[in-house]
Amino acid sequence: MASSATSLTTLEDEVSCPICQAILREPVTIDCGHNFCRGCLTHYCEIPGPDPGEQPICPLCKDPFHPGGLRPNWQLASVVENIEKLKSAPPSGLGEDLCEVHEEKIYFFCEDDETQLCVKCREALEHRTHTVRFLEDAADPYREQIHRCLESLKNEREDIQGIQSREDQRIQVLLTQVATKREKVILEFEHMCQFLERQQYLLLTQLEELDGDILKQKDEFESLVQGEICRFDALISELEEKLERPARELLKDIRSTLIRCEGRRCRKPEAVSPDLGERIRDFPQQALQLQREMKTFLENLLFELDCEPALISLDPRTSHPKLLLSEDYQRAQFSYKWQTSPDSPQRFDRAICVLAQDGFVGGRHTWVVAVNPVHGGSCTMGVVNHDVRRKGELRLRPEEGIWAVRLAWGFVSALGSYPTRLSLEENPKQIRVSLDYEVGWVTFINAVTQEPIHTFTASFTGKIFPFFGLWGRGSSFSLSS
Questions:
Q1: CB neighbours of 460 closer than 8 A, spacing ≥ 6?
Q2: Are residues 370 and 444 in the same domain?
Q3: Which of 61, 279, 389, 406 makes the best surface tag, with the fewest CB within 10 Å?
Q4: Which ranges carry the RING-type domain (predicted)?
């Protein structure tokens, strides 16, 4: 503590007034560069000299100066103010940091070395040419930097919290969808199990009837065959006996015997009647209903697990003049001949596209597009933001608010940041487009084979519209739910 007090006293001596020997008050600088209290110097100048017209001289170096040329020394005034603050600060024994080298209180900060200094450190040779400021003065710019950093970090934290909130909502939507799908799967399979049990009973009953009819005809067949065998045994015995008799007895009634034996023809009975054979042969046809029901079950299950069907119509207000729309707005065809269409802010003027009349701001929706791109033509489909560009060149990519695929030259391409040709088992004729607004999915599926084509992931904020494009004479598409 004694050392700190000594350092502060030394610092006070450096900023003391040579006239009053106290700390400078409103310090001013005269022509020779020495500093004095404004009041002390004014009072000094009022003391008359030996020659009334002679200029006053500096009390220290005796150089003359002009009384009217006093210059306030604001930097020195700031130093004096900081010394006053240091004098009013609590003593160093109450938790203050001391210089590790001189064990004196720290007053300064070297901006070149970014080091805190005491009075003795400040006078050291290595810091004499450096920019040294009082701690509070040096801390102000850093406080401003810290405030800017805090502002930036808080903004980034808010962004992350916004992402977390959005993703939490997506997770909840997905969990709800999974729970709904689980209920639908259980319900559909319960119905299917009941149907299968009924079908099993009916098919087994028919098989039991067939089994009984086969056994019945088997008994009838065996009885018939046994009767025939007995009759043939009797004739054979009669002829064998005839052969053993003398000629006179053999020739007796020989003609009648031969006629009776030769006229006897073997009946060829069938173990299974034609009617029963047809019933056995046609039994697999009884399973056709089961096959149809299973197909219907799978279609219904896929439908229940998919999105809600959307009844959409094309919007003629947005249609490019080279598109021919059907009267029910369910079909469009490309034409090189421009249609007479009034220009409007909603209409595409360069991109040969058209939007649906209604958009979506939530929910899960699906629609089917039957495509017919002729050789050299193309069909494009997907969804777009409500504020998609209508005038001038239109870049089909997610950055422009467009999520779409294109069929051209027998290939399907996903129109991402860069178009990507997709590898598919077959070229789709019908494509199912599904939009899950909350989760942010745009899914494309082959509506015939159910083969997945592509899925975009996005974050939707405004209204989303179904989107369609065509190119090439004769190219067309039609809509269905």
A1: 385, 437, 440
A2: yes
A3: 61
A4: 17-62
